[in-house]
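Collaboration report, partner site 2.

Our partner group contributed sequences for two proteins of shared interest, and the home lab folded both. The records are reproduced in the order in which they were received, starting with the first partner submission.
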Amino acid sequence: MIALYGALEPLRVANRFAGDVFTWRFVSVDGAPVAASNDIPVSVTGMLSDIGTPDLVLFCASYEHESALTSPVCAAVRKLARRRTMLGGMDTGSFVLAEAGVLDGYRATCHWESLPGFRERYRKVQTTRGLYEIDRDRLTCAGGASSIDMMLEWIGRLHGRPLSVQVADQLLHFRLADGADEARIPAETRYQTKDKRLIGILTAMEENIEEPLTVPALAVLAGLSQRQMERLFQEELGSTARTLYINLRLERAVHLLTYGDMSVRDAAIACGFSSLAQFSRMFKARYGKPPSSYRTSS
């Protein structure tokens, strides 16, 4: 819901300053109200098949986006694309566009949690880790508050940057910059550390999941002895480097299994595990059930 109304409110505020330059409406696949992930219903005024030819159509999805990846929905998306309608996806709404094939050859992003699975599933999309991407007639954003950033950028392109700045000021939204930042909060904030050596190691871990670096190689990267590095990890994070690295790789596996269509074996390989047995054992120790049942229940 924050992504949905984050996209809508900049348009409402822009109308205060620029006149009624924007109008909007909500539609659903079947014309029935849609419950957001917080169970609050959103009323709609029509069906996707009767949408006509708006200037922009934004698809908003969340945890159970797979239910929208149907043939009728994809056909409707492709029909809009043929009419040269500008199309956008918010959060996992990007999956809807990609499944319909209308993101092939475009830069696009989605929520960081689903990004690994999205990248593996849609190889023809130029996937980025940005807060948002506006590439020709396609808009995508990572969800949450990033929809505000995306719409501020779109407003600025249509009606000038001064208007987008006015809107941002009214929304108390100060992340208005030239270009989109990366979607995920910086490592120093997530891990609550300002030690640049540690941040460098953690960043290297996150960037080397499929082919993990060895613990000694990580220490060399930071200019530390292995003993110094392990002491730093214990003091700052209360964990060994090896344990944290394994947990990062297992977390990536969860994202691949949840948002992609990979087999368990392929997910294990993509996360740097040498054997399926090792992966399954570590996964179960971490999450309390094997990866196969995790995928089924997710």
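Second partner submission, folded after the first:
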Amino acid sequence: MIKDGRKLLSIEREKLILDLLDSGYTGITVLSDRIGVSEATIRRDLLSLEESGYVKRVHGGAIKLKNAETEPIFIEKAARNYDAKEAIANSALKLIENGDIIYLDGGSTIQILAKHLTEKKNLTIVTNSLMAALELFETDHRLIIVGGEFRRLSRTVVGSLTGKIISSLNIRKAFLGTIGFTLEKGMTTTDPNEAYTKELVINNSEKVYVLADSSKVGHDSFAVSGKPEKIDALITDKGIDDKEFKRKLLEKDIELITPQ
């Protein structure tokens, strides 16, 4: 299938496959015809979705698994709470000065922030996010892409190979996404390799900002990726009205930043 004059990316095909499976189309041939790609491509996409826990392949096709306890694919995450993420990204943008050295983590909110960086000048931007990098290819900013193992779900590079670059840099401001955030554990994610890379960034940054919409606050995930005492500020939307939570944030010296 061609969209806007280009072939669909794998994440876009996977989203279409999941939507078609929801609608009752389960056969490889039908999926191939509907999406406009070869049956071999559909088989590869179904294998990827099965490995991620979204579908189960059956003879001649696949079925979507219900209530799978997995991390959403990037394109699904990007569509959730978009207005809140836009407001969070704009709040983060105000913290960036011309000439800053910043780090952009993975995540759909960080990608929105990356889009807005055309408003700044002479930035040095370090990132492990291919989606953020894609937004920055045509800018005049200095862009450093961290190498490592590609993680399909988040479209980031993670793991021990990221250490050589990250550990050699002094980052002024790190903007990190997260799957969950609690006062007890701090930032958490589903993948230990991703957690490892986030911790490397935290340890080599002067300021650490966590960008998380309010749906992620109060929830945790599998791997701790940033303890509360290492976080300078939580940038979120206006959905947090828990006075006790706000008081405890202050006790831990974590600034709460919400859209004005």
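Feedback sent to the partner group on the second submission included the following. The longest strand covers residues 205-211. Residues 2-69 form a domain with the Arc Repressor Mutant, subunit A fold (CATH 1.10.10.10).
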